[in-house]
Amino acid sequence: MANDWRQQIHLEPRAGWLNDPNGLCFFNGKYHIYFQFSPDSSSGAGRKCWGHFESSDDMQSFDYTGIVFEPDIPEDRSGVYSGCAVIHEGKMHIFYTGNVKLPGDYDYITAGREANQIHVVSEDGIHMGAKWVILRNPDYPAKMSCHVRDPKVWIEDGKWKMVLGARTLDDEGCILFYEADDPDEWHYVKTLTRKDYGYMWECPDLFDVGGKWFLGLSPQGVPHEEYKHQNVYSAGYFRYEDGTLEGDFEEFDYGFDFYAPQTFIDKNGNRLIIGWMGIGDIPYSNPTTQLGWQHCLTIPRRLSVAADGGLIQTPVVNYDGESAPLGDNTPEFPYALEASQIKDGLEIGIGGARIAFKDGVASLSFTDDSGSGRTIRKAKIGSCDDVTVIADRSSLEIFWNGGRTVMSSRFYPDTTAPAIVYAGCELSVRKLKKTEVRGFE
Ligand code: FRU
């Protein structure tokens, strides 16, 4: 089949719908990558489960081991929603939200929904222990709506700590903090918010990179601007200092398709981030939906802190050989394009995708229908020293200035080797090793 748009280095389901990465961790010599999975429909309808990939410690070959959680207790009967994994004393501790929609005439915001936080212990990441409910609606502050979810847990100075994303009854997005000495006995600590920053904060993640702390979150309802918050929902971070949110919110990604990321620590102690290369309720589309599946995860990116205090994302990929000047050959996906010697007016075309830099603004746009309804995304980056594009069969991830600004997008060219044109730079290409995925029948 010519246009199956199957990804070569990105994790995606064989059939059905994928959304958020969940439970990311390195455990017993393997990486575990769980994901929100609707196996019954490529449009996301039906059961909401967790699917599971695990890999050798080079993230080069993966096994899809199947569904590890499905809605099968009263407390998660409308969906096994997002969550995380923590490794403690040789066991994996998973925390997720059991979503329950009660039958009846409810708005499901202020009434009719249960948000149950659930703890599960696993010895191997595949076989799961009993589901144990640790927090229910009455355990949240009285001013919360029924939207409280996506636990991210870590252990700090011997204490278990948790952040939850939430929506107040006044339609304000916020984070709830809980603490525990025992992972089944949690108590509320505090709520944090930022005025006028949307009505719901999903998928919080409180993490440190080299001793600096950040609060990652996916806010819904932040007003759109020309160079910021261009998508229906955003994903980004505040700095977190002395227990408060500091500075401006900065987006993790300025492309068309990035949401609900999660960070974790790799085998070398580096912090990596993986996002969902998709967003809910988008006004554009993904033509794989008609073929039976939709969405993938981003490649992992290593986080570091820039001199200005913001985050740098460095792609973590497996290269196949050295980079070489592009020359006359048109490479086959997957590959990395590396642009240097950049001039104002830079333009790189990959099929119908246009990557440009002019007057301090980086952009990604489409000149044909390979964007499937995607128009233009822009970011003010000031100057431009380099650009790296990770190109797979149906996605582009663009790392400006060593990854200080990133743009991720799905795109659907009609060939596995679209023509590359460029002006205003030197361009090299470096092949990437295909990721092997076993376990799909
Ligand atoms: C984010 C999200 C989470 C929720 C999950 C449900 O995309 O809405 O808040 O847990 O997806 O699939």
Strand content: over 45%
Q: Give the fraction of residues assigned to helices.
A: under 10%
Report the major sheet.
6 strands, mixed
- Uncertain regions: pLDDT < 50 for 5+ in a row? none
- Please, what is the average pLDDT? 97
CATH architecture tag of the largest domain: 5 Propeller
Strand order of the largest sheet: 19-1-2-3-4-33
Question: How many individual β-strands?
Answer: 33
Topology:
Layout: E1 16-27, E2 30-38, E3 49-55, E4 61-69, E5 80-88, E6 91-101, E7 113-122, E8 132-135, E9 144-156, E10 159-168, E11 173-182, E12 185-192, E13 200-209, E14 212-220, E15 236-241, E16 244-251, E17 259-265, E18 271-276, E19 293-294, E20 301-305, E21 311-315, E22 324-325, E23 335-340, E24 346-350, E25 353-358, E26 361-366, E27 376-380, E28 387-392, E29 395-400, E30 405-410, E31 420-423, E32 426-431, E33 436-438
The structure holds beta-D-fructofuranose.
Defining key terms:
single chain, 441 residues, mainly beta, Tachylectin-2, Chain A, Jelly Rolls, 2 domains, six-stranded mixed sheet, binds beta-D-fructofuranose
